């Protein structure tokens, strides 16, 4: 996800080589200038921790259940791993129950979670409305719920009843995704957008990307493909082949609400003789899993990602539960958006911003706590 001014010396044909700027009819000079500036800011890696530095010391002896929409979603799996890492530090137990991506499976997983009567339950990447009966049962049992990508906005939620929802702001993620396409294409692109309309969070993200792309008259949305995440491995290759036949020359860029679409797309691009460095130049609007970074770093059918700080969000979930157990309000922290490319990832396989582990350890150890350790 590099912008023209940062990559003027890149080799022609690289997945990070932007097209020439367009200032004539069909271009968008004002939107292009804004997009380049926004992308340059988002690509910075010299960040400092801007999250919580105070809070309650760790409550001991708690158990959490992480109910996953599907552990085949690398974002969900990455957050679960981060939560397990944090739990080892804080001295808690975490059990992961995989919903398998189907409504029936997610409902069964939530029912099992409530039956276990844990200290807290994580809604891992699915709409709590699809498990309203289980959510109500958890509330009746006094079990706090923390969501990850469970509703469209970060922070506490009354309906559904979530102590808090951990996520980046979908508006920011969608906006920087669209601006990367505008910047990378020089304001002239033919775009295919992949979404999962069955997940409200994902559908809203893709609709926001569409709206942002529309700010540039030189960008044309060629196709809007609805492929449920659990079906991505089977459906995406067929759709890619069809799209290549329909738009052999005009398809220059793609965006997807999750990186995993491009893992499934790679074989179809390869079979069609497309070079890994593009076009089309592909950007994932989440979640920045290791395989996405591997594709980006090797320039194999993905040029950029807008990664969630998955491990950090797992640690944040632990901290939010600790605040709930201690009778404190949610932290209110929302991680800023970041964009990763081969040019700024330094070979990493995740976006793991610095500082959060040390900050949370200080809080949980009582070195930054406000008030006495809770006895609850």
Description of the molecule:
By secondary structure, the protein is α/β, with parallel strands linked by helices. Helix content is 38%, strand content 14%. The protein contains eleven helices and eleven strands. The strands form two sheets. Strands 2-1-3-4-6-5 form a six-stranded mixed β-sheet, sandwiched between helices. It has a five-stranded parallel β-sheet with strand order 8-7-9-10-11, with helices on both faces. α4 (132-140) links the parallel β3 (120-124) and β4. The N and C termini lie far apart (47 Å).
Layout of secondary structure:
Elements lengths: L28 H14 L20 E6 L5 H17 L2 E6 L4 H13 L4 E5 L7 H9 L4 E4 L6 E3 L4 E5 L3 H16 L3 E7 L4 H14 L5 E8 L5 H15 L6 E4 L3 H12 L9 E4 L5 H8 L6 E2 L4 H16 L30 H10 L11
Parallel strand pairs: 1-2, 1-3, 3-4, 4-6, 7-8, 7-9, 9-10, 10-11
Antiparallel strand pairs: 5-6
Helix pairs in contact: 1-5, 2-10, 3-4, 5-6, 7-8, 10-11
Beginning-to-end CA distance, first to last residue: 47 Å
Anisotropy-based shape = globular
Mean pLDDT: 89
Neighbour order of strands in the largest sheet: 2-1-3-4-6-5
Strand and helix order: HEHEHEHEEEHEHEHEHEHEHH
Low-confidence stretches: 1-26, 371-376
Characterize the biggest β-sheet: 6 strands, mixed
Which structural category do the helix and sheet elements fall into? alpha/beta
Number of helices: 11
Sum this structure up briefly:
The chain is α/β, with parallel strands linked by helices. The protein has helices spanning 29-42, 74-90, 103-115, 132-140, 170-185, 200-213, 232-246, 260-271, 290-297, 310-325, 356-365; strands spanning 63-68, 93-98, 120-124, 145-148, 155-157, 162-166, 189-195, 219-226, 253-256, 281-284, 304-305.
